[in-house]
Design goal:
By secondary structure, the protein is of the alpha/beta class. Helices cover 40% and strands 17% of the residues. A hairpin with a 5-residue loop joins strand 2 and strand 3. The chain starts with a strand and ends in a 6-residue tail after the last helix.
Length: 331
């Protein structure tokens, strides 16, 4: 699917085609939730030269180091999945970090990729870029039409800047870069930290610890009424490759399931999966965040992709992964 063909520097129209499995693909953030899933997907699909660097090996906030890395490795395809991420508490407490770190990461990676003439570049953002009270389900053209959710506005602004960065490269240099905005993601390699995680992994850890400690009650933030859409990260990885091979357009593409559930329903499902039989209480003095956040995924469906992993199956496999890796997960 092409949303207006892109004229490259040589004036040749661009049409998405299957990527060469021998081309070097750099996945920035390859150890994270999304990046690790993308690496798994690429390897299963036969890509022979997928590279990544840990933050200890390459600090993407360091502009000189980032440029040196790109000059040395010369990737043909880049997926920017590296970012500083966190839940409501982390975003509310450290807005400077979320804004500054993400702006520097994005700018450095994009500028370095531009210097190398990287043709296929996929920038990954977040559904928090949309206004707090955007009409549901949220269409791509809702961007910049209203006020953001204040608990994560700094992170959202950084991601909006990334979208505009991609669009600016398309406009000024004619390279067919694209952006994808996933809904709430979960799965293997997630952050299960009590203070830094998103809602679903935080709930998995909370209920699992309650079972292990013999606790009879679990207390969650808010009312449990907000509605959220959840996408398994393996589905996200599949969508990323599909977009790289089938989509070209300046507009960001929403990536999700097109369905949502309440936080209370998610909590009940997790409690059932981990075997918690006690009482769940809700601390209504804590913020709920955005009342509803459901993405319109018609553009993605039009490009030929739909989610496959159900929420129940996804939670079950994620809990299994958590149990297997409990000692190694981020705490």
């Amino acid at each position: 699917m092409t949303d207006g063909k892109t004229d490259l520097k040589g004036g040749v129209p661009f049409t998405p085609t299957p990527l060469d499995r021998g081309d070097r693909v750099y996945v920035a953030g390859h150890r994270g939730l999304v990046g690790s899933a993308i690496v798994r997907k690429l390897e299963v699909e036969g890509f022979e030269d997928v590279i990544g660097r840990t933050s200890a090996e390459l600090d993407l906030k360091d502009r000189d180091a980032t440029f040196a890395f790109f000059r040395e490795t010369k990737p043909k395809v880049v997926v920017l999945a590296a970012a500083k991420v966190g839940g409501i508490l982390a975003n509310s407490t450290y807005p400077v970090d979320f804004l500054s770190d993400n702006l520097r990461i994005q700018t450095n990676v994009m500028d370095a990729a531009l210097e190398q003439g990287v043709e296929r570049f996929l920038f990954l953002g977040s559904s928090c870029i949309y206004p707090k009270f955007a009409p549901q389900p949220i269409k791509e053209d809702s961007l910049l039409t209203g006020h953001l959710e204040e608990t994560n506005d700094a992170y959202a602004i950084a991601k909006i800047a990334g979208i505009l960065g991609v669009q600016s490269v398309r406009k000024q240099y004619g390279l067919p870069w694209i952006s994808a905005m996933p809904t709430n993601l979960y799965g293997p390699n997630d952050n299960f930290s009590p203070k830094g995680s998103h809602v679903l992994p935080a709930l998995i850890r909370r209920y699992d610890e309650a079972v292990k400690s013999g606790a009879t009650t679990v207390t969650n933030w808010g009312t449990g009424a907000p509605r959220r859409e959840f996408l398994h990260v393996d589905d996200m990885a599949d969508a990323c490759l599909h977009l790289l091979e089938h989509y070209d357009g300046a507009a960001q593409v929403n990536v999700g399931t097109g369905t949502d559930v309440t936080i209370r329903e998610v909590a009940e499902t997790i409690a059932d999966v981990v075997g918690f039989t006690g009482v769940t209480e809700w601390d209504t003095t804590k913020p709920d965040g955005t009342p509803q956040k459901l993405l319109d995924v018609s553009k993605l469906a039009g490009a030929g992709w739909n989610a496959r992993i159900s929420l129940v199956d996804g939670i079950g496999s994620t809990v299994g992964w958590y149990w297997e890796h409990a000692r190694a997960v981020r705490s």
